[in-house]
Design a protein that fits this description.
This protein is mainly β. Helices cover about 0% and strands about 45% of the residues.
Length: about 350
């Protein structure tokens, strides 16, 4: 008998020599008969494996498929150990199943590995589960459409969130798109746009900027570093609520006994956005009258004749009062009564 041993715990082959003779013949023939002997405690082996996962995608793999047993041996429960320390994939495990997620910024074609061993059979040679980054999504990023209202009453600028805007296309939604540049149109020269953060833009304006609708376009970048092309740029429509301009002039148009009447020339204030609602007339810091948007003012009454007072007219809209104003010094006046004339005739 000749024994061929494949290793500790592995099956081996015994070759038995059997003599046979055909009836009627005198000579015996010796035939080798191989006999497979299965150990009582077989040792499993591990085979390598590989999976491909595209950026942002998740795949599950059963590690039990890497465990093989000798021919004829009955599979048994084993204790599988794993180790992964890479940066391209997030790997978690539940039982024999590992869940692999390729990170959004993982470069396609790059690879890492999970070391797999059998804690229950330390004599088994460890193998690896190769993790390969698949191709990135073919769809390119696209910026969304943002409409935002800001008011000069809140300061000299406002922040606009553009990440996640309506109409945005993010091929790798696990990572927000990052705004990389913004360009203002020519419709509002007194308003500037600038990148303020990964997902925000800041609009700022000068003190004398008129209100109005200002537009801008912006580009975004996805986790794979791809920047939206011109036709896939995002758009911003800024509805800037501005203070009105100051009135052109304030004049006294009439006077009377204890009364006077003022009138406002709206000038540039007539083009206010939001629309002009009227004018406040102040004497010192006290509002004493209001005028219509066209500048028509009701008479002031109860005044002391001859007392000169400086009146100031501020344009007003939904945002507030204009920063500039027009002034005039005016007073009430009671003209003397006209006396009758007598004609005399000589005697």
């Amino acid at each position: 008998m000749v024994r061929y041993d494949a290793g500790n715990g592995a099956p081996y082959v015994d070759t038995c020599l059997v003599g046979v003779r055909i009836v009627g013949q005198e000579r015996w023939t010796v035939l080798p008969v191989p006999v497979m002997v299965i150990p009582a405690d077989p040792v499993p082996t591990l085979v390598s494996a590989s999976i491909e996962v595209a950026p942002g995608e998740t795949s599950a793999f059963d590690l039990a498929g890497m465990v093989t047993w000798p021919p004829g041996a009955v599979a048994r429960a084993v204790d599988i150990a794993t180790s992964h320390t890479g940066t391209l994939f997030d790997v978690s495990r539940r039982g024999t199943v590992v869940t692999v997620t390729a990170r959004d910024d993982a470069p396609p074609g790059r690879a890492e590995s999970v070391s797999v061993s059998l804690a229950s059979h330390p004599e088994t040679r460890p193998m690896v589960l190769s993790l390969v980054v698949g191709p990135a999504p073919s769809e390119l990023p696209k910026g969304g459409t943002v409409v935002q209202r800001c008011s000069q009453a809140s300061g000299d600028g406002c922040l606009i969130t553009v990440s996640g805007a309506r109409g945005e296309v993010n091929p790798l939604p696990g990572t927000p798109l990052e705004v990389v540049d913004v360009t203002a149109s020519d419709d509002c020269p007194a308003v500037d746009f600038a990148v303020a953060g990964p997902g925000t833009v800041r609009a700022s304006w000068s003190a004398d900027a008129p209100g109005g609708v200002c537009d801008a376009v912006f580009s975004v970048r996805d986790a794979q570093g791809r920047v939206s092309a011109a036709e896939r740029s995002g758009t911003i429509s800024l509805d800037l609520q501005g203070f009105p301009r100051g009135a052109a002039a304030l004049t006294q148009t009439a006077y009377g006994d204890g009364t006077l009447t003022l009138a406002v020339d709206p000038g540039a204030a007539a083009g206010a956005y939001p629309a002009l609602t009227g004018f406040d007339i102040l004497a010192g810091s006290t509002r004493v009258a209001t005028c219509t948007a066209s500048g028509v003012c009701a008479p002031l009454t109860g005044l002391a004749n001859g007392d000169k007072v400086t009146y100031t007219a501020y344009a007003v809209n939904a945002v507030g009062r204009s920063r500039d104003a027009a002034s005039v010094t005016a007073w009430a006046y009671a003209p003397p009564h006209r006396r009758g004339w007598c004609r005399g005739h000589p005697p």
